[in-house]
Amino acid sequence: MSKKRNYFTKIRFSLRKIIGYTSTTALTWIRSGPALFFTFIYPIVMILLFGYIFSAGGDDSLFTLNYMNEDVYQIGDQYYSNNPASQLLSKLGYQNETLAKELNLNLQSVFFDTSHISAADWMKENSIPYLLIIPEGWSSAVNESKINSSAPIASVHYYFDPSYTSSIEVQTIIDSVLQEMNLEEFSITTFIQIETETTPSREGLEYIDFYVPGIIMVTISTAGMMGLVGTVTEDRETGLTYKLSSTPLKKWEWSLSHLLWQAIMGIIVAILTALTGWIAFGFNMATIHPLMIVALIFGSMTFSGLALILSYFVRRTEAAMAVTMAFVFPQMFLAGAIFPAELLPSYMQTIAKIFPLYYISESLRNMMLESTFHKVWLNLGITIAMGIVFFIVGSFITKWRKE
Amino acid sequence: MTEPDTKSHSVKTEKKVLANFSIALKRIGAYVSAAVLDFRRSPLTMFFTVAYPIILILLFGAIFSDTNASFTSYELYIQSEGDEGFLVQPTPPVFLNFTNTLITTISEIQTNDSQPLFDVKYIPLKDEQNKAIDPGTYLEEVEGYICLLIPENFTQKVLFNYPVDLRIILDRNSQSASISLSIINSIVYNFNLAVNNSQTNLGMETFDIYLEEEIEYFEFLIPGIIGIAIMNNAVLGTINRYSYFKKFGFFRKLSTTPMKKKDIVLGETAWQLIQGIISIIAIIFIAWLAFKLPQGDFGWIVRVLDWKIIPVAIAGVMCFTGLGMIGARIVNNPDAGTAVGNFISFPMMFLSGAFFDVSGVPVINVISKMLPLTYMVDALRASMITNNVAIAWLNIGISLAFGVGLLMIGILLTKLSER
Question: How many helices and strands, by DSSP H and E, does chain B display?
Answer without folding.
Answer: 15, 7
